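Give me the fold.
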Amino acid sequence: MLDTTAARNFSPFPDPGTVQMFRIGSGALFLEGRSNPSMRLLEMVTLALERLDSEREMASLRQKVKRLGKQLKAVKRSSHRLLPELENTERRAGALSAWYRHAAQMLASSHLGSSLPGLVERAKALLEVEFGAVLTRELKRVRLWGGESLRRVVGSTFDIKRLGSIGRRVLLSGDVYNSGSPKARFESSKLFGSIGLKSLLAVPMKVEGRVLGAFLLGSEQEHEFLSDEIDLARLMAYQSALFLENALLVSGADVERVVARAVLESMADGVFTLDWEKRITSFNPAAEHITGWKAEDAVGRRCSEVMRGQYLCPGAKKPAGCEENCPLLALLADQELMETGLTVEGTIKTANGEPRYVSSSYSVVADRGDLLGAVVLFRDITEKKALEQMKSDYAAALSHDLKTPLTAMKGYAVTLLRHGEKLDEETRHEALEVINSEIDRVTRMFDNLLHQARIEAGMQTRYLEPIDLHEAIGKVVSLHNFSSRKHSLKANVPEGLMVRGDRDQLDQILNNLVSNAVKYSPAGCHIMVRAEADDRFARVEVEDDGPGIPEDQIPYVFERFR
């Protein structure tokens, strides 16, 4: 562009007037100065040039508008085509989001019955199919979750054979089954066709190579599931498998806890657990019964507060308390004992202060060398210890009782050997009767011991037969009248009183009762044996003038070794 104001002496026009300035720009000529005849022409030229430029610009604009119109039409056509896809994508995104929310909640749960069906419904919505179900294996049977239409046909569980080759392929070998793929055919049409399905996708639920079940998705239309749908189904099947494994682990742990709790609560032995500070963390019903402590009162206390044991530590020579004599101290000091456990015996005090003798087994609970606590199993052996003491006392008394007749027999036998020829017939006969009577007495003692041993061994037999009670009691009374001249024994038994029983055992019982009366009655006392019919039984009584049985011992009359 040429632009100047200095060309004042230059003039292309014939008019001599002065032109002050001219500009040429953008194809148009602009003049400033005095008016002359040529100015009109110049103005016309300028207008023509301006009009020419405008037409060019308009033509250019028309071309641009035309191109934009074509592009707009193309965009409009594309938008009509993409809008359903966009809406479908948004819908799937929403369904997938709902799936992930449910999957997250599901993984925190362990209730298969409510979680799996909900998961199936979300999977159906996500893949836009009419049928969905989860199959889980239970030995040779299959459990169905969801799939109400199929459940009405096969029930909640059914034989795996009813799935045909799909069951073997998916549940056993872990392959994907797609009925719409070119290489597949709907092999289970008999089962799935009965509920109106024309296509089926079955994806195994795998965790670390193990097939836990199968995810089924079906349509009432012929449909080939595409790769993106199969990938999505695989993802859902994997997440479902994780949930199923978690639920099975939790369920198994719950079952183990229930079984362990049931075992502990049904045990006759007391069991309690301790933490590493020796505080009680659990206390079973048997422990409550033995100690008199309620579980809610015992839990949280130190073991020494509840058990208050003495002589529990191995080798303890004095009644030191639990803290000083804790068996766990001996256990922790010996690596071998830590592996095998430790069993000790000693006394504890119940909640009301009553002493009880217990046998306790201690085992430590450790994890990678760290002591977590201990388990203590104990049983009340107070009665066992008392029985052992009574056995010892009984053996001592029996030794004394055996020594008495043996001494008498020895004395009479020596007398007969040394002075038999000098004794008259009556004295010799009396000595022999005493020896014979004492032998019978010793025999009865041994019979009692053998009889007791047979009872304890479960070898006691009975031979029932009719017995004349008048005769049996008379025989026992006569025998003791002869062996004990210091007492007066009489019988009052109706003649012909018959009973049915074991003769040897009846003789033993009668002899025991009468011999006790003789043994514990002072000399000169009267002993009466009576018998009478009592409805369907016979009642036998032995009455003497002795001190009788102390009232506090009556409850123990039928206990052994009392």
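Residues 228 and 234 are 10 Å apart (CA to CA).
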